[in-house]
Design a protein that fits this description.
2 copies of one chain form a homodimer. In chain A, helix 2 runs parallel beside helix 3 (62-71), helix 6 (158-169) packs across helix 7 (177-185) and helix 6 packs across helix 8. Chain A has 8 helices and 12 strands. The first copy, chain A, has helices at 13-25, 36-46, 62-71, 89-98, 110-124, 158-169, 177-185, 194-207, and strands at residues 5-9, 29-33, 50-54, 80-84, 102-105, 132-135, 138-141, 146-149, 152-154, 174-175, 216-219, 223-226. With 229 residues, chain A is an alpha/beta fold. In chain A, strands 2-1-3-4-5 form a 5-stranded parallel beta sheet, sandwiched between helices. The two termini of chain A are 28 Å apart. The first copy, chain A, folds into 2 domains: 5-128, Response regulator (Rossmann fold), CATH 3.40.50.2300; 131-226, Arc Repressor Mutant, subunit A, CATH 1.10.10. In chain A, helix 1 links the parallel strand 1 (5-9) and strand 2 (29-33). Chains A and B meet through helix 4 and helix 5 of A and helix 4 and helix 5 of B. The structure holds a DNA duplex (30 and 30 nucleotides). Chains A, B: GO terms for molecular function: phosphorelay response regulator activity; transcription cis-regulatory region binding. Chains A, B: Residues 5-121 form the Response regulatory domain. Chains A, B: Residues 130-228 form the OmpR/PhoB-type domain. Chains A, B: One of its GO terms (cellular component) is cytosol.
DNA sequence: GCCTTTTGTTACCGCCTTATGACAAGGAGG
DNA sequence: CCTCCTTGTCATAAGGCGGTAACAAAAGGC
Protein backbone atom coordinates (compact mmCIF):
# COMPACT_ATOMS: atom_id res chain seq x y z
CA UNK A 1 0.00 0.00 0.00
CA UNK A 2 1.44 3.37 -0.95
CA UNK A 3 1.67 6.03 1.72
CA UNK A 4 -0.89 8.72 1.08
CA UNK A 5 0.81 12.08 1.13
CA UNK A 6 -0.73 14.79 3.28
CA UNK A 7 -0.06 18.49 3.19
CA UNK A 8 -0.67 19.95 6.64
CA UNK A 9 -1.12 23.70 6.81
CA UNK A 10 -1.22 24.71 10.46
CA UNK A 11 0.52 27.56 12.27
CA UNK A 12 0.02 26.27 15.78
CA UNK A 13 3.35 24.51 15.95
CA UNK A 14 2.62 22.20 18.84
CA UNK A 15 -0.61 21.04 17.22
CA UNK A 16 1.14 20.62 13.89
CA UNK A 17 3.83 18.48 15.47
CA UNK A 18 1.31 16.33 17.27
CA UNK A 19 -0.68 15.75 14.12
CA UNK A 20 2.37 15.04 12.05
CA UNK A 21 3.51 12.45 14.56
CA UNK A 22 0.10 10.79 14.74
CA UNK A 23 -0.44 10.70 10.99
CA UNK A 24 3.02 9.32 10.35
CA UNK A 25 2.31 6.63 12.89
CA UNK A 26 -0.72 5.78 10.77
CA UNK A 27 1.46 5.38 7.73
CA UNK A 28 0.96 8.73 6.05
CA UNK A 29 3.64 10.91 4.51
CA UNK A 30 3.24 14.34 6.01
CA UNK A 31 4.48 17.60 4.60
CA UNK A 32 3.88 20.43 7.04
CA UNK A 33 4.02 24.17 6.72
CA UNK A 34 2.81 27.10 8.77
CA UNK A 35 2.76 29.54 5.90
CA UNK A 36 -0.06 30.10 3.46
CA UNK A 37 2.03 31.04 0.49
CA UNK A 38 4.40 28.17 1.00
CA UNK A 39 1.37 25.93 1.17
CA UNK A 40 0.36 26.91 -2.35
CA UNK A 41 3.83 26.10 -3.60
CA UNK A 42 3.99 22.75 -1.88
CA UNK A 43 0.54 21.87 -3.11
CA UNK A 44 1.64 22.10 -6.72
CA UNK A 45 5.16 20.80 -6.31
CA UNK A 46 4.53 17.88 -4.01
CA UNK A 47 1.14 16.87 -5.38
CA UNK A 48 -0.30 15.73 -2.05
CA UNK A 49 -3.22 13.36 -1.98
CA UNK A 50 -5.05 15.49 0.56
CA UNK A 51 -4.66 18.86 2.24
CA UNK A 52 -5.43 19.59 5.89
CA UNK A 53 -5.95 23.30 6.19
CA UNK A 54 -6.33 25.49 9.24
CA UNK A 55 -8.97 28.15 8.84
CA UNK A 56 -6.54 30.81 9.99
CA UNK A 57 -2.90 30.62 9.08
CA UNK A 58 -0.18 33.19 8.67
CA UNK A 59 0.18 34.84 5.33
CA UNK A 60 -3.19 33.98 3.90
CA UNK A 61 -6.47 32.92 5.37
CA UNK A 62 -7.25 29.25 5.07
CA UNK A 63 -10.39 29.93 3.16
CA UNK A 64 -8.44 31.93 0.63
CA UNK A 65 -5.94 29.11 0.20
CA UNK A 66 -8.84 26.76 -0.30
CA UNK A 67 -10.25 28.97 -3.00
CA UNK A 68 -6.90 29.28 -4.74
CA UNK A 69 -6.29 25.55 -4.62
CA UNK A 70 -9.63 25.00 -6.27
CA UNK A 71 -8.98 27.58 -8.93
CA UNK A 72 -5.65 26.14 -10.04
CA UNK A 73 -6.21 23.31 -12.42
CA UNK A 74 -3.30 21.35 -11.00
CA UNK A 75 -4.78 21.20 -7.54
CA UNK A 76 -8.48 21.55 -8.24
CA UNK A 77 -9.22 17.95 -7.42
CA UNK A 78 -7.16 17.53 -4.27
CA UNK A 79 -9.50 16.92 -1.35
CA UNK A 80 -9.33 19.45 1.46
CA UNK A 81 -10.17 19.04 5.13
CA UNK A 82 -10.49 22.29 7.04
CA UNK A 83 -9.74 22.79 10.72
CA UNK A 84 -11.73 25.54 12.32
CA UNK A 85 -11.91 26.96 15.80
CA UNK A 86 -15.10 28.74 15.00
CA UNK A 87 -18.22 26.75 15.41
CA UNK A 88 -20.54 29.21 13.75
CA UNK A 89 -22.76 27.69 11.17
CA UNK A 90 -22.09 30.38 8.60
CA UNK A 91 -18.39 29.68 8.68
CA UNK A 92 -18.88 25.99 8.27
CA UNK A 93 -21.22 26.44 5.36
CA UNK A 94 -18.89 28.93 3.79
CA UNK A 95 -16.11 26.41 4.10
CA UNK A 96 -18.07 23.70 2.39
CA UNK A 97 -19.28 26.02 -0.33
CA UNK A 98 -15.76 27.21 -1.00
CA UNK A 99 -14.89 23.68 -1.87
CA UNK A 100 -13.63 22.05 1.30
CA UNK A 101 -14.49 18.38 1.37
CA UNK A 102 -14.88 18.24 5.10
CA UNK A 103 -14.12 20.22 8.20
CA UNK A 104 -13.37 19.43 11.80
CA UNK A 105 -14.13 21.82 14.61
CA UNK A 106 -11.56 22.51 17.27
CA UNK A 107 -11.12 21.11 19.74
CA UNK A 108 -10.92 17.70 18.15
CA UNK A 109 -8.98 14.58 18.88
CA UNK A 110 -6.32 13.41 16.46
CA UNK A 111 -8.23 10.17 16.26
CA UNK A 112 -11.28 11.91 14.88
CA UNK A 113 -9.27 13.83 12.33
CA UNK A 114 -7.58 10.64 11.24
CA UNK A 115 -10.94 8.95 10.80
CA UNK A 116 -12.22 11.83 8.70
CA UNK A 117 -9.13 12.01 6.54
CA UNK A 118 -9.29 8.31 5.93
CA UNK A 119 -13.00 8.56 5.09
CA UNK A 120 -12.39 11.31 2.56
CA UNK A 121 -9.50 9.42 0.99
CA UNK A 122 -11.49 6.24 0.78
CA UNK A 123 -14.13 8.15 -1.11
CA UNK A 124 -11.85 10.01 -3.46
CA UNK A 125 -9.04 7.59 -4.11
CA UNK A 126 -10.02 4.13 -3.02
CA UNK A 127 -6.68 2.67 -4.01
CA UNK A 128 -4.93 4.81 -1.42
CA UNK A 129 -7.08 3.40 1.34
CA UNK A 130 -6.07 -0.11 0.41
CA UNK A 131 -9.32 -0.97 -1.25
CA UNK A 132 -9.74 -3.02 -4.30
CA UNK A 133 -10.76 -1.16 -7.42
CA UNK A 134 -13.42 -2.71 -9.56
CA UNK A 135 -14.74 -1.45 -12.87
CA UNK A 136 -16.85 -3.75 -14.93
CA UNK A 137 -15.23 -7.17 -14.87
CA UNK A 138 -11.77 -5.84 -14.12
CA UNK A 139 -10.38 -5.89 -10.61
CA UNK A 140 -7.23 -4.16 -9.48
CA UNK A 141 -5.67 -4.71 -6.09
CA UNK A 142 -3.18 -1.97 -5.42
CA UNK A 143 -1.86 -3.70 -2.32
CA UNK A 144 -0.77 -6.86 -4.05
CA UNK A 145 -0.17 -5.12 -7.36
CA UNK A 146 -2.44 -7.52 -9.16
CA UNK A 147 -4.98 -7.19 -11.93
CA UNK A 148 -7.58 -9.75 -12.86
CA UNK A 149 -10.36 -9.93 -15.38
CA UNK A 150 -13.11 -12.45 -14.80
CA UNK A 151 -10.76 -14.26 -12.48
CA UNK A 152 -8.04 -14.45 -15.12
CA UNK A 153 -4.84 -12.84 -13.97
CA UNK A 154 -3.51 -10.16 -16.31
CA UNK A 155 0.11 -9.33 -16.99
CA UNK A 156 0.91 -5.63 -17.17
CA UNK A 157 4.12 -3.64 -17.16
CA UNK A 158 4.70 -1.10 -14.39
CA UNK A 159 3.63 1.90 -16.43
CA UNK A 160 0.54 0.17 -17.75
CA UNK A 161 -0.35 -0.78 -14.20
CA UNK A 162 -0.15 2.82 -12.97
CA UNK A 163 -2.09 3.99 -15.99
CA UNK A 164 -4.82 1.45 -15.39
CA UNK A 165 -4.95 2.28 -11.70
CA UNK A 166 -5.38 5.95 -12.43
CA UNK A 167 -8.09 5.23 -14.94
CA UNK A 168 -9.92 2.98 -12.53
CA UNK A 169 -9.85 5.65 -9.88
CA UNK A 170 -11.73 7.94 -12.21
CA UNK A 171 -13.85 5.74 -14.39
CA UNK A 172 -15.76 7.30 -17.25
CA UNK A 173 -13.86 10.52 -17.22
CA UNK A 174 -11.92 11.73 -20.24
CA UNK A 175 -8.29 12.70 -19.72
CA UNK A 176 -6.10 14.53 -22.16
CA UNK A 177 -2.68 13.13 -22.90
CA UNK A 178 -1.20 15.96 -20.86
CA UNK A 179 -3.31 15.11 -17.85
CA UNK A 180 -2.34 11.47 -18.11
CA UNK A 181 1.32 12.39 -18.28
CA UNK A 182 0.97 14.48 -15.15
CA UNK A 183 -0.99 11.86 -13.28
CA UNK A 184 0.86 8.73 -14.29
CA UNK A 185 4.35 9.88 -15.18
CA UNK A 186 4.48 12.73 -12.66
CA UNK A 187 4.15 16.45 -13.03
CA UNK A 188 6.88 18.00 -15.07
CA UNK A 189 7.95 14.86 -16.83
CA UNK A 190 9.35 15.87 -20.15
CA UNK A 191 7.81 13.28 -22.35
CA UNK A 192 6.24 13.33 -25.78
CA UNK A 193 2.47 13.46 -25.70
CA UNK A 194 2.35 10.76 -28.33
CA UNK A 195 4.05 8.35 -25.99
CA UNK A 196 0.75 8.10 -24.18
CA UNK A 197 -0.73 6.53 -27.28
CA UNK A 198 1.80 3.78 -27.17
CA UNK A 199 1.11 2.95 -23.55
CA UNK A 200 -2.60 3.04 -24.18
CA UNK A 201 -1.91 0.54 -26.89
CA UNK A 202 0.08 -1.64 -24.51
CA UNK A 203 -2.60 -1.38 -21.85
CA UNK A 204 -5.26 -2.39 -24.35
CA UNK A 205 -3.19 -5.30 -25.48
CA UNK A 206 -2.66 -6.49 -21.93
CA UNK A 207 -6.28 -6.11 -20.95
CA UNK A 208 -8.05 -7.60 -23.94
CA UNK A 209 -5.92 -10.69 -24.07
CA UNK A 210 -8.74 -13.10 -23.47
CA UNK A 211 -10.96 -11.62 -26.12
CA UNK A 212 -12.63 -9.25 -23.69
CA UNK A 213 -13.96 -5.94 -24.92
CA UNK A 214 -11.78 -2.87 -24.89
CA UNK A 215 -12.63 -0.65 -21.92
CA UNK A 216 -10.47 2.21 -23.15
CA UNK A 217 -12.43 4.70 -25.20
CA UNK A 218 -10.61 7.01 -27.56
CA UNK A 219 -12.10 10.47 -27.58
CA UNK A 220 -10.85 12.12 -30.68
CA UNK A 221 -9.09 15.44 -30.09
CA UNK A 222 -9.67 15.10 -26.36
CA UNK A 223 -7.93 12.07 -24.97
CA UNK A 224 -8.90 8.73 -23.49
CA UNK A 225 -11.45 7.44 -21.00
CA UNK A 226 -11.82 4.18 -19.18
CA UNK A 227 -15.20 2.62 -18.63
CA UNK A 228 -17.03 -0.56 -17.92
CA UNK A 229 -17.71 -2.61 -21.00
CA UNK B 1 -29.36 19.56 -14.35
CA UNK B 2 -30.81 16.21 -13.34
CA UNK B 3 -32.47 15.94 -9.95
CA UNK B 4 -30.34 13.97 -7.55
CA UNK B 5 -32.46 11.43 -5.71
CA UNK B 6 -32.22 11.34 -1.94
CA UNK B 7 -33.37 8.64 0.39
CA UNK B 8 -34.26 10.18 3.74
CA UNK B 9 -34.47 7.79 6.68
CA UNK B 10 -35.84 9.70 9.66
CA UNK B 11 -38.49 8.76 12.17
CA UNK B 12 -39.09 12.21 13.58
CA UNK B 13 -41.94 13.02 11.26
CA UNK B 14 -41.95 16.76 11.65
CA UNK B 15 -38.23 16.92 10.96
CA UNK B 16 -38.61 14.57 8.01
CA UNK B 17 -41.32 16.74 6.52
CA UNK B 18 -39.33 19.90 6.96
CA UNK B 19 -36.27 18.37 5.32
CA UNK B 20 -38.25 16.89 2.48
CA UNK B 21 -39.78 20.27 1.77
CA UNK B 22 -36.47 22.09 1.89
CA UNK B 23 -34.63 19.58 -0.28
CA UNK B 24 -37.37 19.51 -2.86
CA UNK B 25 -37.21 23.28 -2.99
CA UNK B 26 -33.52 22.84 -3.83
CA UNK B 27 -34.36 20.60 -6.74
CA UNK B 28 -33.83 17.19 -5.18
CA UNK B 29 -36.08 14.19 -5.52
CA UNK B 30 -36.79 12.96 -2.01
CA UNK B 31 -37.93 9.50 -0.99
CA UNK B 32 -38.69 9.40 2.72
CA UNK B 33 -39.26 6.58 5.15
CA UNK B 34 -39.30 6.23 8.90
CA UNK B 35 -38.59 2.54 8.93
CA UNK B 36 -35.23 0.89 8.84
CA UNK B 37 -36.23 -2.23 6.98
CA UNK B 38 -38.17 -0.28 4.42
CA UNK B 39 -35.09 1.88 3.98
CA UNK B 40 -33.06 -1.13 2.90
CA UNK B 41 -35.67 -2.03 0.35
CA UNK B 42 -35.94 1.47 -1.04
CA UNK B 43 -32.17 1.76 -1.20
CA UNK B 44 -31.93 -1.14 -3.62
CA UNK B 45 -35.13 -0.53 -5.53
CA UNK B 46 -34.94 3.21 -6.00
CA UNK B 47 -31.18 3.49 -6.39
CA UNK B 48 -30.87 6.85 -4.67
CA UNK B 49 -27.84 9.01 -5.30
CA UNK B 50 -27.37 9.63 -1.59
CA UNK B 51 -28.84 8.43 1.71
CA UNK B 52 -29.55 10.66 4.70
CA UNK B 53 -29.73 8.44 7.71
CA UNK B 54 -30.81 9.14 11.25
CA UNK B 55 -28.63 7.46 13.83
CA UNK B 56 -31.68 6.05 15.58
CA UNK B 57 -34.69 4.94 13.60
CA UNK B 58 -37.41 2.43 14.27
CA UNK B 59 -36.81 -1.13 13.30
CA UNK B 60 -33.07 -1.00 12.98
CA UNK B 61 -30.41 1.32 14.28
CA UNK B 62 -29.03 3.76 11.76
CA UNK B 63 -25.56 2.44 12.18
CA UNK B 64 -26.77 -1.06 11.40
CA UNK B 65 -28.47 0.19 8.25
CA UNK B 66 -25.28 1.91 7.29
CA UNK B 67 -23.35 -1.30 7.73
CA UNK B 68 -25.85 -3.29 5.71
CA UNK B 69 -25.89 -0.75 2.91
CA UNK B 70 -22.14 -1.00 2.68
CA UNK B 71 -22.19 -4.76 2.67
CA UNK B 72 -24.65 -5.09 -0.19
CA UNK B 73 -22.86 -4.70 -3.48
CA UNK B 74 -25.76 -2.81 -5.04
CA UNK B 75 -25.60 -0.06 -2.48
CA UNK B 76 -22.00 -0.23 -1.35
CA UNK B 77 -21.04 2.95 -3.14
CA UNK B 78 -24.01 5.15 -2.31
CA UNK B 79 -22.79 8.02 -0.16
CA UNK B 80 -24.34 8.24 3.29
CA UNK B 81 -24.82 11.27 5.52
CA UNK B 82 -25.69 10.44 9.11
CA UNK B 83 -27.78 12.58 11.43
CA UNK B 84 -26.91 12.14 15.05
CA UNK B 85 -28.17 13.65 18.25
CA UNK B 86 -25.20 12.37 20.13
CA UNK B 87 -22.17 14.54 20.07
CA UNK B 88 -19.76 12.11 21.64
CA UNK B 89 -16.59 11.64 19.73
CA UNK B 90 -16.71 7.88 19.89
CA UNK B 91 -20.04 7.81 18.13
CA UNK B 92 -18.90 10.10 15.40
CA UNK B 93 -15.80 8.07 14.79
CA UNK B 94 -17.80 4.90 14.81
CA UNK B 95 -20.07 6.43 12.20
CA UNK B 96 -17.22 7.35 9.92
CA UNK B 97 -15.52 4.02 10.37
CA UNK B 98 -18.71 2.20 9.58
CA UNK B 99 -18.67 3.86 6.22
CA UNK B 100 -20.72 7.02 6.54
CA UNK B 101 -19.41 9.73 4.27
CA UNK B 102 -20.35 12.53 6.57
CA UNK B 103 -22.42 13.22 9.62
CA UNK B 104 -24.28 16.21 10.97
CA UNK B 105 -24.94 16.69 14.64
CA UNK B 106 -28.37 17.70 15.84
CA UNK B 107 -29.46 20.34 16.20
CA UNK B 108 -28.53 21.52 12.73
CA UNK B 109 -30.07 23.90 10.27
CA UNK B 110 -31.52 22.56 7.04
CA UNK B 111 -29.20 24.92 5.26
CA UNK B 112 -26.15 23.23 6.72
CA UNK B 113 -27.40 19.79 5.83
CA UNK B 114 -28.09 20.94 2.31
CA UNK B 115 -24.58 22.32 2.02
CA UNK B 116 -23.10 19.05 3.24
CA UNK B 117 -25.21 16.90 0.97
CA UNK B 118 -24.31 19.02 -2.00
CA UNK B 119 -20.62 18.87 -1.04
CA UNK B 120 -20.69 15.08 -0.82
CA UNK B 121 -22.49 14.79 -4.13
CA UNK B 122 -20.10 17.16 -5.81
CA UNK B 123 -17.27 14.99 -4.65
CA UNK B 124 -18.75 11.63 -5.51
CA UNK B 125 -20.70 12.28 -8.63
CA UNK B 126 -19.68 15.51 -10.30
CA UNK B 127 -22.25 14.89 -12.96
CA UNK B 128 -24.99 15.37 -10.41
CA UNK B 129 -23.57 18.58 -9.06
CA UNK B 130 -23.74 20.65 -12.18
CA UNK B 131 -21.09 19.44 -14.60
CA UNK B 132 -23.85 18.02 -16.67
CA UNK B 133 -25.77 20.18 -19.08
CA UNK B 134 -29.36 19.39 -19.79
CA UNK B 135 -31.70 21.08 -22.24
CA UNK B 136 -34.97 19.43 -23.02
CA UNK B 137 -34.33 15.73 -23.45
CA UNK B 138 -30.69 16.17 -24.36
CA UNK B 139 -27.94 15.63 -21.80
CA UNK B 140 -24.30 16.53 -22.25
CA UNK B 141 -21.63 15.42 -19.82
CA UNK B 142 -18.46 17.35 -20.41
CA UNK B 143 -16.47 15.19 -18.01
CA UNK B 144 -17.04 11.96 -19.85
CA UNK B 145 -17.54 13.71 -23.17
CA UNK B 146 -20.89 12.05 -23.72
CA UNK B 147 -24.16 13.17 -25.22
CA UNK B 148 -27.42 11.32 -24.78
CA UNK B 149 -30.98 11.91 -25.83
CA UNK B 150 -33.68 10.06 -23.96
CA UNK B 151 -31.03 7.65 -22.80
CA UNK B 152 -29.81 6.97 -26.33
CA UNK B 153 -26.14 7.73 -26.74
CA UNK B 154 -25.40 10.13 -29.58
CA UNK B 155 -22.33 10.11 -31.76
CA UNK B 156 -20.86 13.53 -32.49
CA UNK B 157 -17.57 14.68 -33.94
CA UNK B 158 -15.32 16.96 -31.91
CA UNK B 159 -16.50 20.18 -33.51
CA UNK B 160 -20.15 19.25 -33.27
CA UNK B 161 -19.59 18.39 -29.63
CA UNK B 162 -18.08 21.79 -28.87
CA UNK B 163 -20.80 23.51 -30.84
CA UNK B 164 -23.53 21.67 -28.96
CA UNK B 165 -21.85 22.35 -25.64
CA UNK B 166 -21.72 26.05 -26.39
CA UNK B 167 -25.34 26.08 -27.42
CA UNK B 168 -26.40 24.23 -24.30
CA UNK B 169 -24.55 26.68 -22.13
CA UNK B 170 -26.67 29.45 -23.59
CA UNK B 171 -29.98 27.90 -24.48
CA UNK B 172 -32.52 29.97 -26.34
CA UNK B 173 -30.12 32.67 -27.37
CA UNK B 174 -29.43 33.50 -31.00
CA UNK B 175 -25.84 33.58 -32.18
CA UNK B 176 -24.55 34.91 -35.45
CA UNK B 177 -22.19 32.78 -37.47
CA UNK B 178 -19.36 35.09 -36.48
CA UNK B 179 -20.13 34.66 -32.81
CA UNK B 180 -20.23 30.91 -33.20
CA UNK B 181 -16.90 30.93 -34.98
CA UNK B 182 -15.37 32.93 -32.16
CA UNK B 183 -16.87 30.78 -29.45
CA UNK B 184 -16.42 27.34 -30.92
CA UNK B 185 -13.52 27.67 -33.32
CA UNK B 186 -11.65 30.27 -31.28
CA UNK B 187 -11.20 33.96 -31.76
CA UNK B 188 -9.22 34.84 -34.82
CA UNK B 189 -9.87 31.65 -36.66
CA UNK B 190 -9.86 32.50 -40.32
CA UNK B 191 -12.76 30.46 -41.51
CA UNK B 192 -15.61 30.99 -43.93
CA UNK B 193 -18.83 32.01 -42.26
CA UNK B 194 -20.76 29.51 -44.30
CA UNK B 195 -18.77 26.68 -42.77
CA UNK B 196 -20.92 27.12 -39.72
CA UNK B 197 -23.91 26.05 -41.78
CA UNK B 198 -22.29 22.78 -42.56
CA UNK B 199 -21.53 22.03 -38.96
CA UNK B 200 -25.02 23.03 -37.94
CA UNK B 201 -26.18 20.53 -40.49
CA UNK B 202 -23.90 17.86 -39.05
CA UNK B 203 -25.02 18.66 -35.54
CA UNK B 204 -28.66 18.38 -36.55
CA UNK B 205 -27.99 15.12 -38.25
CA UNK B 206 -26.26 13.71 -35.22
CA UNK B 207 -28.91 14.87 -32.80
CA UNK B 208 -32.08 13.97 -34.67
CA UNK B 209 -30.98 10.47 -35.55
CA UNK B 210 -33.78 8.73 -33.71
CA UNK B 211 -36.50 10.87 -35.19
CA UNK B 212 -36.35 13.44 -32.41
CA UNK B 213 -37.27 17.01 -33.13
CA UNK B 214 -34.66 19.49 -34.24
CA UNK B 215 -33.63 21.73 -31.34
CA UNK B 216 -31.63 24.06 -33.57
CA UNK B 217 -33.67 27.01 -34.74
CA UNK B 218 -32.61 28.96 -37.79
CA UNK B 219 -33.07 32.68 -37.40
CA UNK B 220 -33.02 34.11 -40.82
CA UNK B 221 -30.40 36.79 -41.42
CA UNK B 222 -29.32 36.52 -37.79
CA UNK B 223 -27.93 33.09 -37.05
CA UNK B 224 -28.91 30.04 -35.00
CA UNK B 225 -30.35 29.30 -31.61
CA UNK B 226 -30.64 26.15 -29.56
CA UNK B 227 -33.73 25.44 -27.53
CA UNK B 228 -35.69 22.71 -25.87
CA UNK B 229 -38.11 20.95 -28.15
C1' DG C 1 -45.76 35.42 -59.35
C1' DC C 2 -40.81 36.67 -60.02
C1' DC C 3 -36.45 37.88 -58.41
C1' DT C 4 -33.07 38.22 -54.74
C1' DT C 5 -31.20 36.76 -50.65
C1' DT C 6 -30.41 33.45 -47.37
C1' DT C 7 -30.06 28.77 -45.96
C1' DG C 8 -29.88 23.49 -46.68
C1' DT C 9 -27.42 19.72 -48.48
C1' DT C 10 -24.03 17.09 -50.72
C1' DA C 11 -19.54 15.88 -52.43
C1' DC C 12 -14.78 16.18 -52.33
C1' DC C 13 -10.04 16.60 -51.04
C1' DG C 14 -6.47 17.58 -47.94
C1' DC C 15 -4.99 17.42 -43.34
C1' DC C 16 -4.83 16.17 -38.78
C1' DT C 17 -5.36 12.61 -35.33
C1' DT C 18 -4.75 8.09 -33.97
C1' DA C 19 -3.05 3.13 -34.40
C1' DT C 20 0.61 0.13 -34.74
C1' DG C 21 4.92 -2.06 -35.24
C1' DA C 22 9.88 -1.58 -34.90
C1' DC C 23 13.94 -0.08 -32.56
C1' DA C 24 17.47 1.53 -29.47
C1' DA C 25 18.63 3.19 -24.97
C1' DG C 26 18.36 2.40 -20.20
C1' DG C 27 18.06 -0.49 -16.02
C1' DA C 28 17.33 -4.36 -13.01
C1' DG C 29 18.72 -8.70 -11.82
C1' DG C 30 21.45 -12.64 -12.16
C1' DC D 1 29.22 -8.73 -17.83
C1' DC D 2 25.38 -10.34 -19.94
C1' DT D 3 20.45 -10.82 -20.61
C1' DC D 4 15.87 -9.69 -20.40
C1' DC D 5 12.46 -6.44 -19.63
C1' DT D 6 10.82 -1.96 -19.90
C1' DT D 7 10.26 2.38 -22.12
C1' DG D 8 10.38 6.41 -24.94
C1' DT D 9 10.54 7.80 -29.75
C1' DC D 10 9.88 7.49 -34.56
C1' DA D 11 7.98 6.20 -39.11
C1' DT D 12 4.28 4.89 -41.45
C1' DA D 13 -0.39 3.54 -42.36
C1' DA D 14 -5.20 4.21 -41.88
C1' DG D 15 -9.06 6.69 -41.18
C1' DG D 16 -11.90 10.30 -39.60
C1' DC D 17 -12.77 15.11 -39.70
C1' DG D 18 -13.04 19.72 -41.41
C1' DG D 19 -13.31 23.43 -44.65
C1' DT D 20 -14.79 24.80 -49.15
C1' DA D 21 -17.37 25.10 -53.20
C1' DA D 22 -21.33 24.17 -55.87
C1' DC D 23 -25.96 23.46 -56.42
C1' DA D 24 -30.77 22.99 -54.61
C1' DA D 25 -34.31 24.75 -51.84
C1' DA D 26 -36.67 28.02 -49.21
C1' DA D 27 -37.95 32.56 -47.60
C1' DG D 28 -38.78 37.43 -48.22
C1' DG D 29 -39.48 41.62 -50.88
C1' DC D 30 -41.81 43.80 -54.52
Amino acid sequence: MPSPRLLLVEDDLSLAELLQYRFEAEGYDVIATADGDEAMLLATEQAPDLVILDWMVEGTSGIEICRRLRRDKETAHVPIVMLTARGSEDDRIRGLETGADDYVTKPFSPRELIARVSAVLRRVRPALAGEMLEVGDIKLDATSHRVTRRGQSLQLGPTEFRLLKFFMEHPGRVFSRGQLLDAVWGTGSDIELRTVDVHIRRLRKGITLEGGKDPVRTVRSAGYAFEAV
